[in-house]
Design a protein that fits this description.
The chain is an alpha+beta fold and 89 residues long. Helix content is 35%, strand content 21%. The relative contact order is 0.26.
Length: 89
């Protein structure tokens, strides 16, 4: 699966990364939530399939989806909308 990038432009806003895997319902839900919330702030989303890299698969295993904001783990399994909006402000 190619990375998803909501190409709304990099304007110095936080970087949001989603670690996910194919055929993962929680990943699908998290992706949709991230796309919706990040669009409010014109923030790009980078999605990486952990199964494309043995190191990522070892690091994240079954703990996907994992959301990072500016390189720091922000949450896993689900998007906490209010908390994410605060981090993106």
């Amino acid at each position: 699966m190619p990375p998803i990038v909501a190409t709304l432009g990099d304007r110095g806003y936080p970087r949001v990364r989603l670690y996910s895997r194919t055929n993962c319902h929680l990943c699908d839900v998290a992706r949709a939530d991230l796309l919706r919330i990040c669009a409010e702030f014109s923030v790009e989303i980078e999605e990486i399939d952990v199964d494309t890299d043995p190191g990522l698969r070892a690091d994240y295993g079954d703990r996907v989806p994992v959301i990072l904001v500016d390189g720091q783990e922000h949450g896993c399994f689900q998007v906490e909308a209010a908390r994410l909006r605060t981090a993106l402000r």
